[in-house]
């Protein structure tokens, strides 16, 4: 479609890990990228058709929003997850060019990022004072303000590259060097990404009844069809005490017979079940499918049952049905 | 079809409880009724198209054949159960007309019938000698032979009525006055009796793997769809030690979505599963269907899943699938 | 105990397959062996302390009694199975010494044995007339009577060996050459056979409630502890329509923690559960025990829970329980 | 213990919702209360015996720390939850005494609190600029600084009461008037709070194997003992991709037989299971216990099994075990 390009919202500001996640989407570099001040604003941009899709953090995020994201997608106007992205969480300490490490007294960043660099800070800058920031990127960009009240910021490597005037004082200062955060790209329902053999399906299932066994029935819908779960979380519905829904990631794609059958089973026991998307796994780990839950096994079983039911219309009228007319 | 009538085989000879069961089938009185010397012979008459259907005992039989019947239907050329019949088991003591109770020294009947009249015999005829018979009816009819070696027979009330020259010396001599035996009418596959809301479905399921949990998976196919089981029996396959199949009666009809879905599930985990028929229950007890397993619930779930999968073909090619063309 | 010997009842008469089973018990040759006319009589001899134990058929029996045996042990005064015996079912055709095969017109045996030799008879003696007998042994011994009404009998090899005057006309005339029947030795409760690593446990479990899922809960008591089931049969209780108990053989011994724990679980969901014995398997096939259900795993788990509960009595009185007194 | 008092750590600073939670503990008013700068610091104070217990947010927190708290308790030196507290989340807008609502341009608070007052702010102060704070209390107290860069703060009612010089400009400005946050009091293991009939038990269970069914086995340990789950969350272990543990709240107390039995079951299938405490529910909602999982049912089942096993030592030596010595 020459002359037009997509618009992507993301949890901003520019330079966050969320923008780094968005830049992994093939056409995002040429697309319009709109930072949003919080997860709900990013999702609303999609719901209101201001953006085609939104990138938001879903797990372990440095800048929060995890359970907020889950809850925001689970309620309100329907949205589908169409892509999952993993971003390595690597922190750098930045300052205005010319400032030296030994000059730094006050350091700003998002509270979660501060928590994740505590060991490095305690060891290398034990006397540093913490100044809260609304995001890692905001803290970094704030350094360029004339009246900045702090000397350095902890942020993603992306920010330092995007802004002239900032220099990296130290790299890889996070306490957990292998940290990775998961983000999802969310759009309005309408197009289901193709099966790749390494997919995930996300659903939200209201607990139909608060009793021992109700959760078993939900989990069994997957287990009995050989579908593994990679995430499950109970979340209060907010309506009244003691009621829950479950947010679930299952290994597989709704286009697989076993997953489609599990979805149908969930809908029966909890008709408020919401489908939140089937999409390829960021880790590309392919899903093993037990032979008895393959599409072929489902198809063979379906044919067999249909061959039995085909006889239903042939039943005799005298109640014995004994004799097929020769 | 004027001029022709059905042919029914039954476990004979004439006058057995099995013939009494057959006479409960609406058109059996006008039909040709062929006694068979054993259950296999009766079933073979159907398999070989000599008979349209066969009545055989399936449970608790006075004259045996229970597990033999189960095994005979479970293997060989496929047969379907199309009707279930309950017959009250009431025994009478008969002799040639003129013989009095106090003249009786030797009593003949089938071994199982003898066992079921033990209390009455011990109390009323403690000295009587037992002469084994091949069936209750054969023992009764034998009394009319010139060189009969016994004086009385224990049999079904039907025999005494059918044969002149026999008189009833005592009625209701069975130890368990409420005894009832279950019989089934078996035909070649081809016509499935209509749903009545009070049906049974019989299946045979080979155990896919001999480990803890394999039986659970079979039973769960029914339980997870709200289908109650009224009978389950493990039977050795005879092939080699330690392998089994399960013979199962489930409450419901294959024409119900929940039962059809359970059958499909069984076929997937054990492709050798054999359908042995859906037929109305002899006790007319209707089956309660939990709302979430009703045909409507299945239909709603199916529509919901199809609405999701309809989006599959719309997926974009660029891997993000983000934007339904506006 | 010098001067005394045990007394064993068995389903008679002498020369049956049941006596052959009894002779496999180490001390049975020197013991007093008392034939009983039916399974109940054999069991009552034990219940009344007339016999120390009784050998009865439990499965696939040539001479019946299978479901009768199950039901007889499941109800009435408690009995325990203490041994399982497998006997190859091999039939011979016998006649009085001097009689030749071509002289035989009428053949007697138990109805079940007759059914199991049908193919051989049809092929080799198509015109033979069947005379029912109360047992294979009774038919054979009857040949020695002066006024015997038949010429030959089908019976176990044991009978021919035990009685002078009988000769074997044909051997291995059964249709299924590998046929094996299972028998059990039953005693009054009181001594549990030692664990051998290849054991079975038999229980009877009344269905606590007739609904989908109730059977699952019973089966789950075994499956969740890694205990395999080698037999399960639903049996009507006889009390009223639609109520059942389950007769179950599980692989393992009540002395194993996982089996004992499963028994306790059964008792909780169905307090009428009846223990019918733990005994070594006739096939000596040892039972694989998953590591997480070994006695060691149970013992470790128990110790762990006890270490937690040991803290219960230490809880403070002020409601916070925060501070263990230092 | 005259002369000494307990020391409680809490997620500070003073005036947070967490301190409000701590003040619900009976002896906290007279105790030493030590604010900690983050959840880990609060927990470490307990681990290092600097504090007797620590109050930390566990769910839906205004000031974060939820998943951090779960993970922090799940790993490292063992800690037990001994009390649960619910605090209504009510926000106020405060300024220095004398400042009027119409004078406010810049507002500071913790990012989560800002998100929860968005509707009120959009409606009543649409032009206000947001200044991030490290906690709601820090933002409020900061107003008293001479060089404060903002005019008002959003915080808990407690802060305004605790500090002279602050006045409330608006009350109940949160978007969700019924919001409640859950906090837990954590101590070193050693004293288990007494059963109250309305208790919770928290455990952490590593997934023993990543396959369909493994989660079922974990959930079944509770369901099969009639124990309801009020929360379940899968959490990545951080060790390598695809491995998880489950953080679970179950309704009941480890001192109940059914809960103790479930714990033992968890330990068997996942020996790394960690007990995180049994404590009374903040909502005082008592837990219904199905009759078949009551302490009495467990006790009766245990006695029954022991009566069977008592016979084990009596088994005879000759292999038949037939005859208890009379």
Automatic annotation (TrEMBL), chains A, B, C, D:
<dbReference type="InterPro" id="IPR002912">
    <property type="entry name" value="ACT_dom"/>
</dbReference>
<feature type="domain" description="ACT">
    <location>
        <begin position="203"/>
        <end position="280"/>
    </location>
</feature>
<protein>
    <recommendedName>
        <fullName>Prephenate dehydratase</fullName>
        <ecNumber>4.2.1.51</ecNumber>
    </recommendedName>
</protein>
<dbReference type="InterPro" id="IPR001086">
    <property type="entry name" value="Preph_deHydtase"/>
</dbReference>
<keyword id="KW-0028">Amino-acid biosynthesis</keyword>
<dbReference type="Pfam" id="PF01842">
    <property type="entry name" value="ACT"/>
</dbReference>
<dbReference type="InterPro" id="IPR018528">
    <property type="entry name" value="Preph_deHydtase_CS"/>
</dbReference>
<comment type="pathway">
    <text>Amino-acid biosynthesis; L-phenylalanine biosynthesis; phenylpyruvate from prephenate: step 1/1.</text>
</comment>
<dbReference type="Pfam" id="PF00800">
    <property type="entry name" value="PDT"/>
</dbReference>
<feature type="domain" description="Prephenate dehydratase">
    <location>
        <begin position="7"/>
        <end position="188"/>
    </location>
</feature>
<dbReference type="InterPro" id="IPR008242">
    <property type="entry name" value="Chor_mutase/pphenate_deHydtase"/>
</dbReference>
<keyword id="KW-0057">Aromatic amino acid biosynthesis</keyword>
<dbReference type="InterPro" id="IPR045865">
    <property type="entry name" value="ACT-like_dom_sf"/>
</dbReference>
<keyword id="KW-0584">Phenylalanine biosynthesis</keyword>
<keyword id="KW-0456">Lyase</keyword>
